[in-house]
Amino acid sequence: MSKDTKNKFDKIINIKNKKASFEFEFIDTFVAGLMLSGTEIKSVREGKVSLTEAYCYFRRGELYVKQMHIAPYTMAASYNHDPVRERKLLLNKRELEKMEAKFAEKGLSIIPVRVFINDRGLAKMEIALARGKKIHDKRQDIKEKDVKRELDRMRF
To answer: I need a labelling partner for 30 at 20 to 30 A (CA). Which of 57, 78, 98, 135 fits?
Structure first.
């Protein structure tokens, strides 16, 4: 193997939903495959993905992600994709049934946490079954982060 083919996927693509951990309390996480069309995977490899308003929902026993923005691929002429179309998530049947049963509970949501390219070059999405945080929970998290930051400062 030459150096070029060996390091083909070394550029780490790791797009995170930074607001998700602040807005939600994660109960369970799953890794799902993304069903992408033509130019979408090229845009994902360039890191042009936004998860800020994305959410997941069930339709006919299958899981879809909505409002995930993948920017159009700049090198494509007329065969570009719709940036905010619904995309199917690929999970095992057992995982889907488990998640759908928990999703039926009141107050739970399925949110995308991060998008990444695995070692085989496939686009994957980490999703979390989550419950929205209350205002006092958010304040508590901020206090804990401040205390941790102060302790780290004192050590150095």
So the answer is: 135
Average pLDDT over residues 13-32: 85
pTM recorded for the entire structure: 0.75
Separation between Cα atoms, residue 48 and residue 136, nearest integer Å: 34
Each domain of the chain, given as residue ranges in start order, spans: 11-155
**pLDDT over 80 (residue 76):** no
Q: Among 2.40.280.10, 2.30.40.10, 3.40.640.10, 3.10.180.10, what is the CATH number of 11-155? A: 2.40.280.10
Spatial separation of the C-alpha atoms in residues 93 and 77, rounded to whole Å: 38
Q: Is 20 helix (H, G, I), strand (E, B) or coil?
A: helix
